[in-house]
Each structure stands twice: as C-alpha cells, then as structure tokens.
Amino acid sequence: MSSSAVAYARQNQRRFLEELKGLLRIPSISTLAEHKRDVEKAANYVAAELGRIGMENVSVISTPGHPLIYADWLHAPGAPTGICYAHYDVQPPDPLGEWISPPFEPAERDDNLYARGAADDKGQLWMEVKAVEALMRAHNGKLPINVKFLLEGEEEVGGESIAAFVRKEKTKLKADFALVCDTELFAPDLPTLCVGLRGLVYTEIEAIGPKTDLHSGMYGGAAPNPFFALIQIISRLKDEKGFILIPDFYHGVKPPGAEELEAWSRLPFDEEDYRKAEIGSNALWGEPGFSVLYRTWARPTLDVHGMPGGFTAKGAKTVIPARARAKISMRLVPDQDPDDIAERYTSYVQKLAPRGVECNVKIWSKALPCLVPTDNKYVSAATEALGEVFHKDTVFIRSGGSIPIVSDFQDMLNIPSLMMGFGLPDDNLHAPNEKFHIPNFHRGIESICLLFEKLGASS
Amino acid sequence: MSSSAVAYARQNQRRFLEELKGLLRIPSISTLAEHKRDVEKAANYVAAELGRIGMENVSVISTPGHPLIYADWLHAPGAPTGICYAHYDVQPPDPLGEWISPPFEPAERDDNLYARGAADDKGQLWMEVKAVEALMRAHNGKLPINVKFLLEGEEEVGGESIAAFVRKEKTKLKADFALVCDTELFAPDLPTLCVGLRGLVYTEIEAIGPKTDLHSGMYGGAAPNPFFALIQIISRLKDEKGFILIPDFYHGVKPPGAEELEAWSRLPFDEEDYRKAEIGSNALWGEPGFSVLYRTWARPTLDVHGMPGGFTAKGAKTVIPARARAKISMRLVPDQDPDDIAERYTSYVQKLAPRGVECNVKIWSKALPCLVPTDNKYVSAATEALGEVFHKDTVFIRSGGSIPIVSDFQDMLNIPSLMMGFGLPDDNLHAPNEKFHIPNFHRGIESICLLFEKLGASS
User: Fold this and answer.
1) Which of A10, A63, A84, B428 has its CA 20 to 30 A from that of B44?
2) Closest residue of A to B243, CA-based?
3) Which ranges of B195-257 would DSSP assign to H, the alpha helix?
C-alpha cells in the first residue's frame, strides 16, 4: 500500500466526511414531488465538486424526471475506461418519529454517520468522487485510467431517465467496465463483490367500491368494501408459505449453480443470529426448503408496502371507504422478465377482483434481474485492491435489491459492472436511522484508489 | 293540526335553522383528541339554549370522556315523563377533499343543509330543543308532559359515559319512555319509526413483524411482513360470500319473524335503484339468499375501515414495515352478545396470527343490538303525530346502525324508546357532503310538538 493517493486520502479524511455531510443535508427524496428542488440541489452540489477536483465536461443533464450528472477525464491513452456510477437520490425518511437524530441532520455516533442516504447511496457516491480527487492530487492532476462519471437521481424510483440516456448515448458512454458503489460488505471487515441482483416490479392496485364513503352500520352487508377486495386479491397472490400464485410466475427462474450455492454455504452466516440482529421478529419467514441467503438472493418474492385509504387516524370511524389502494412489489431473479411478470400480474389481479369492486393496476417501476461475469481483469484488480485494504480474501455474493443500471450497462454498453460496495448489513437502508460505518467510507475511497492504480499500471 | 306549538314553530323556522348552523360550525369530533375542546364547546352551546328556552336544572356533566348534558322540566303532574335523547358529537370529516362545501361551514343547497353532523345528529338534536321551545312558548311556559333531556358527546365513539350515567342515575332518569332522534325516514315523505338496531364491536389489530422498517430488496423472502399477516387473518374472518368464519359467531342470531319480514317486503324499495342511487358500485355485495334489507338490518357483518402503516404517500417505497394495523368492526344483531363476540374474535385472531408476527387486538367500543316493543301508547301517539304531519301511515323498520343508548334505556331504565328520526337514506352519514333535508328538520319539530301534546292530553 505505497499508494500516494491513499496517503492523500488519509490526510484528508475529516474534510471528506464533512463534505459528505453537506450532501446528506439536502433531502433529495426522489419519490416525493415536493422535494423536486432538493433533488436538483443535490445534483448541483455533486456537479460543482466534480468540477472543483478536475473532472471535465461536467454537466447536469435535465430529464423528464430528475437530472443526471455526467463528467469525464479521458487523458490516459491506452488505459481502460471506467464509468463511475452511484445515485444521489434517497428514500423518504418516514416514519420520522423513529429516528434518533433527524434524517437530514447527519450525526456521528460510535464510528457511524447517521443520515438518510448515508450508505444508500450518497456516502458511496462521495467515495468515488473523493477517490478520484485523491488520485488527481497524488498524480499531478492526472488519473491512472480514463474515468466517466454517470450519476443519477432516480434510483429509488426506477431509474427510467438513466436507462433512456444509456440507450441513446452509447458512444459517449463507451467504456470497458463500470464501477457501481451501491452494495454492501457481506460482514464487517469482509471484502465483498456483488455479482447478482434481483429485479423489481413495483405496482399499486386501486380498488373502487361505492361512489362515496358509506356508513358501515347503514350499508354493511350490502356495499362492497374495497379493502376486502384487496385482501381477497392479495391473499391469492402468495400462499402462506411464500409461494407466489400468479400463473407461470416461476417460468423463467434459473436456480444458482452447485458451485455458487456451495460458496454461499461457506459464508459466515447464522440464520438465528440474523433473525435476532437484523430482523428482530420472533421467527423468520419464507419458502421452506431454501436457506435465507437463497431466499433473499435467488428466489422471487412479493411484498405489500402500504394500504392507503379509509380511516387511519387514532380511534374509531365506521366507514366503508369508496376506494382503497395497495402498494405491492415483486422481486425477480434471473431470468424472469419484468415486462412479462407485470403483464401476468395485472391480468391475474383483474381476474381476482370480486364483483362490485373495480380494480386498476398501476406499474410504478420495473428493473431487470441480473448476474454479472467474474472472469475479467476488472474483477481481478478489484479483489487485489480489496485484499490490500482489508487483508482478507474477497467473497462473491448476490444482493436481493435491484440496481437497474447494472443490467443496462450489461445489455446496452456490453460492459461488466464491478459492484463494489461498502455498506453493512445493519445499515438500515430505506428505514429509520440509516447509517454508514465511517471506517468503511475511508476504506472505500482507498479501495477505489488502488483499483484504478492497478488497472492503470497493467495497461 | 290546530296546534299552537306547531304554529309557533312555523313562524320561527328561519331562526331555528340559523341557530342550528351555529351548532354545526363547532367541529365536535369525538374520536379525535385534538377536538376535545370543540366537543366541550358544542355541549355548552346546547346547554345554554336549554336554559334560555326554560328548561330547569341544566347541567353539563363531566365524564372521563366527553360531557353529558342533563336538563328537566317536571311540572306536569299526572302526565308521562319522556327522556329526549340525541348526541352533539360528530364523525371525522375526512376525506376533506371530497366535500363540496367545507364540513364545518353549513351551506344551504336545494332545500338541504350541508355540514358534518347536519343529520347525524346535531340537526335532530336541535329538533328536540326547538320543539320544546315551541311547546313552552305556545303553552305559557308549560309543557304538556314532563321532559328530561339527556344528550351525549360520545355516540360516535361508543357512548361509554352515558351508559355508566344511566346505570348510576336510575332515579334521576326515572321516566316512561325515551324519544331518540337519530334515525331516518325509510323514504322521503314516509313517516318511519325504527324498532331495531344492530350492535357493534369495533376493533383494531396491530401486527408487529421486524423490529424496524426493512428494505424489501435486502430482506424480502426472510422478514415477516405484518401486512401479509393482517391479510391472511382478515381473509379468514369472512368468506367471499360474506359469511363470517369466527367460530360460533352466529350462535345468538335470532331471525326476524315472518310478519316482520312480510312488512319489509311491502316497503317501497328496489335493490337496483338502491345500488345505483346509494351505493354507486357496479354490483351489490353480501350473503346470497338474503334481501338487502335483511342483510343490512338483521344479519351481522364485518368490515375493514382502514389499514394504517407502511408507506402510503404517492409513489414507490420498497419497505417491509415493522408494524401495520387494521381497523375492523362487526355489526351484531339480536341476540348476539358484544362481550362474547369480542372474546371469540380476539382469540380467533390470535390463533390465526402467523409465525413471526405478533398480533395485539384492541377493542375500541361495543354496543348491544336491540329490538324495541311497539305495543304501547307512546308508539300509538307517535304514529298519530307523524300521520298528521306527513298524511301517511307510519312504517316500522330496523336500522343497520348502532345506538347503544336504546339498549341501555331498555335494560337499565326499563322504558321503551321511540326511535323517531327524520334523516334520509342519502344523507351521507359518516361520509363527505353529509346533509339534512331542511323540510324534514321542520317536520321533525312539528311531529315532536304533536307527540308531546297527544301524550299530555291522553293522561
């Protein structure tokens, strides 16, 4: 580790962290229309920093949704070109009351930085930016490889704009690999590359019963209740064991190979510890016959996220609501096709709708599941770099989440992604008290520095 | 109709209506803690008016919940004593966006008065007060019978305080009959007495899964989802035909007699018209083999009113929530026992809770179902009075709603209730755009004047 970039990064740790806090203070919640300006503000914050550190052609690109950020530095002839991807948008912070410190006022406690977006994904975005800064400063304003930044503000809402951009701008985005920092270490101190992601179909069913809210005393027994329609439908989408009942839903599912399964079984993972530490329920849940890692990485699932409508305040109101809704998503695995699943789902839901209730299905977003290849020099360099920072062998895992851009890079630019993330399993992504382990923020910066230096040296 | 009280009432119609608007402007929503002061304010508004018109011993009585109002005038020796009951609390007005004019700014449109509480029950409470005023003024400060007012502010939240008061104050409340104005005409211009009410058990299930909200990508397939637990449970509470599956739920159900059923079949009622005009859904719903009137008056039901929890804003959030809730109520019929049903329900729900999810059941309120006797002089006088005002024969119906005080009067004071109400089936009780047909407000006042005069004359 005689890297001068790493030395520079170490000298500037405190400043890097304070700058990240500035980004975390901007509530760039992409799914809430009232935060549109904040998402823009976050984009401008990041773009300004890219310019300051020496990236060129920095641009904040308007889209029908939230802006993309592009920047490049292409003065390393003969060296490979990498696209640095991350996202600067975040999930909503509710339920607000469960946060120990406010979600948009970053707070340090016990070596952790608490804030919405700390790990997902502003902290990891900032690692990429700061690694490039360290490389520039340590190498007299030059980078060891060619770098393009492509950062988005719609990851939490389906990432449609970046997908369209990648499809349109194949030449501008020509590259050899992508660095995607939006995943986590399998365990603290265990260097990890993620090689598989689940896909997603996020839906909302609106059930419409009476023309107006009705008194359940007067009308109970005659008026169709839209909540009951939703309950009937949802109870038939998935059985009690977790098996999804949509016809032909499992058609495309390709099980992991024996070698991959065997590698998973060697990972340091105890289901009972996981239940206690991460879930906290009195039992785990899911399809019998599959391990937790198998279920969350390589089996599709269906979850209900919320059921708006009717009376939800404290107390009692005897109403049969005119309408009710259910937010339902499915996680998909290779080789399920989101378009096909969305269609099967919609027509099955329509078929299940009981008489008296009209059901409309909206598809909020879709993402392809994917597996990335591991037999290339980018993966080799990454495992070497991680080995030097962590002093351990890198493990290959999958993630149950969805990062749609990884499939886009694979399908449209024909390049592999290095999913090299530094979150931890207990970082509370999408939940109250999201955090980022501060030492991992710095290790992430150092790992990226070493990765780029190795790729530059070998070219 | 040579009643001088009726003549007085007619001369004062406009003032009576304007005074009612003053009461309707007070948002006395009993189920919302933040409106506690408004409920008190409404109580004081009514009490002040009772004093002004000449009632004696007017008192606003504090309770653990909302205040009761008592007043009496007992200077008609030999004449019967009637208790005037009504309630001055109202349901929450949400969804606010669906109101054409604001719920607490009474607005006259097409002979209707629109406001939350217009028909349920402030408008009908005010009929009682104004009838007594008219009688006092027309009879030189005297009433034809002895009158006690007992008005409550907790009808919409279960009426526990009035029940306790009636149980404790049997002597103070000694009377011969009660006049309960909180029901409706079966059809416009058709004088109606209600002789049966459904009971109620209002519950809330809280389902607790993970210790905190979790990302459905990372944890979907392993973490128990509390919404799914609720959906599983609720789908087993009632089948798709409307039959309730709680063990022994129908044990106490006593079907109406052949004569009553026959009378219902003669009522001017068309199920298809009802579907279109009142429900507005593309089909009616409920147990096959029972008519709409049978289902809503004499069959128990179970409804879901809201399912708070998780993500309910616009857009997509991929969360497995730590907890979710379901507000569920059952309407009961004679002779089902609310205590018994609440117990059976609770233990059945607990049994249905799937592994991994803890379910807590809260009972918000209970009300006895009841049937009132019709073979007494109070019913005879009421049908005569109604006949003179409406020029039609009175029909006897039941109501699907719950008015717990009617059973309390029957069980604890041993007196029959005259459920003489003047709402209309399309008054949007508990819903947006609640209204009261203004001519019915005045007919109500006149009917009460005549009823009391007849009872006074016959004694």
Assistant:
1) B428
2) A221
3) 216-219, 226-235
For residue B240, what are the β-bridge partners? none
Whether residue A285 and residue B224 make contact (CB cut-off 8 A), yes or no, is yes
HSE (side-chain half, CA atoms, 13 Å) at A114: 15
SS3 of residue B240 by DSSP: coil
pLDDT at A38: 98
**Domain residue ranges in chain B:** 4-197+370-457, 199-253+300-367
Residues A199-250+300-367, CATH architecture: 2-Layer Sandwich (3.30)
B199-253+300-367 — its CATH code?
A: 3.30.70.360
Q: Name the burial class of residue A40, with classes exposed (0-12), middle (13-18) and buried (19+) by CB atoms within 10 angstroms of its CB.
A: middle
DSSP states along A128-163: HHHHHHHHHHHTTT--SSEEEEEEES-GGGT-HHHH
Tokens of A282: 């009195």
Q: Given an 8 Å threshold on Cβ–Cβ distance, is A223 in contact with B281? A: yes
Between vectors from CA B410 to CA B407 and to CA B411, what angle results, nearest 5°?
Answer: 85
Question: Is residue A227 classed exposed, middle or buried when 0-12, 13-18 and 19+ CB atoms within 10 A define those classes?
Answer: buried
Closest CA to A429 of A389, A399, A405: A399
Strand partners, A386: none
Residues of B in contact with A310 (CB under 8 A): 304-307, 327
| Cis amide leading into A95 (omega within 30) | yes
* Domain B4-197+370-457, architecture per CATH: 3-Layer(aba) Sandwich (3.40)
pTM of the model: 0.84
| pLDDT tens digits along A140-162 | 999 999 999 999 999 988 778 99
Check pLDDT > 90 for residue B158. no
Q: State how far residue A137 is from chain B, nearest Cα, in angstroms.
A: 37
Amino acid making up residue A292: V
- pLDDT of A40-53, one tens digit each? 999 999 999 999 99
